[in-house]
Amino acid sequence: MSLLQKGLDIEMTDETAAFMDHFADSIARRHPRTVSREYYSDYITPLENDIHVNGTTVHIIYAQKMGEKYLKRYYLHFRDPDIIPFDMPHEAWLFSNAWKQPVLDAINNLMMS
Question: Where are the domains of the chain?
């Protein structure tokens, strides 16, 4: 089991393996500087604090295993965010069947309400 699989609790189905192969191939075809800039920009892109638009709620799927600092950031950047907690690692729902349906159900419930 790879470190990535273990860290994200990934179940290696045929679908997951195909996704991971495609992802790895797309990263490998890019220049390392491009990949670095892409991910680095996510870290340095400034967000206002206390973002609020009347009549709008920010819904956040929160992977609790990311840690409290991320939760604090959500509350810093968004006024009264709707935090939907899951006891999972970051983005585990993309790779693990154990989390996929519960997260999709939560998103569906929000969209239907």
Answer: 3-112
What tokens appear for 68 in the block? 């409290």
Of 50, 106, 108, nearest to 81 by C-alpha is: 50
The rounded radius of gyration (Å) of the Cα atoms in the chain is: 17
35 sits in which H/E element: helix 32-44
What is the helix (H) or strand (E) element at residue 85, kind and residue range?
Answer: strand 82-86
CA 48, 52, 58, 61 torsion: positive or negative? Answer: positive
pTM above 0.70, yes or no: no
Give the pLDDT band (50/70/90) at residue 61: very high
Do residues 72 and 95 touch, judged by C-beta distance below 8 A?
A: no
Show Cβ contacts of residue 15 under 8 Å, excluding neighbours closer than 6 positions: none
Q: What whole-number distance in Å separates Cα of residue 64 and Cα of residue 13?
A: 25
CB atoms within 10 A of CB 31: 8
The Cα-based distances of 57 to 6, 49, 97 in angstroms read 34, 15, 28
